[in-house]
Amino acid sequence: MRTMMILNIFLNIIFLNIPVYAKDLNLKWSEIRFFLSDTKFANKDENLGALMMPDQIEEMKGITGFGLEVDAELNSWFKAGTKVKGVFNGSNKKEAAFPATEYISVQQYSAGLTGRVMLVNKDNIFLDMFGELGLSNNSVELKTSGGTAKWEKNSHFYQRAGASMGLGGSLLKMYVEGGYENFKMKNPNYEGTIGQNINEIDLSGSYVSVGLVISGIPSWIKPGGLSIGGM
Known about the structure:
Helix content is 13%, strand content 59%. By secondary structure, it is mainly β. The chain is elongated and about 60 Å long.
């Protein structure tokens, strides 16, 4: 409950405070990005590996997620917006039985602010570099023949940085994005019967996303079109 309240406050800051000042900044919604993303973990966790080895649970090397991003154009070379992402494929199971009796799984949800510097910004092509900062909820669950464990770290900061390139028409483009994301679960909340000595799990790594960009949203759809308390 506390985590959801913090995330809601964070998203309200993004979606409500920007509109308040939008007229002064002359912002307009520029694009919406829908994407599928695949992350490869940079570091192998030896402690988790030792717990999985007796049951021959395969090492988890990465996770796959999906999400969307909405950007506002400040000028011809800079865009700012918000990105949300969730993981839908983050588990390894020892056997095909359902539900699996021995497995490791990762759940991750994030919401952050993104700034993009446009290196090329034309109707049929764009190239940008970006940085992102936000809050995330992460959990790792492990079940073996020797016991169970769950590590959770909620409402903590993460970072992403990278570049993207898109090709297509003025309204619709396909794009690819690559970069690095930093998700370190330090001193997570723990419950279970195994792995009590694990005080950090690193879910950081390089990632590649592919998706669609809907551009050229009508200029009359502006953040300033929304209001708070009649402002």
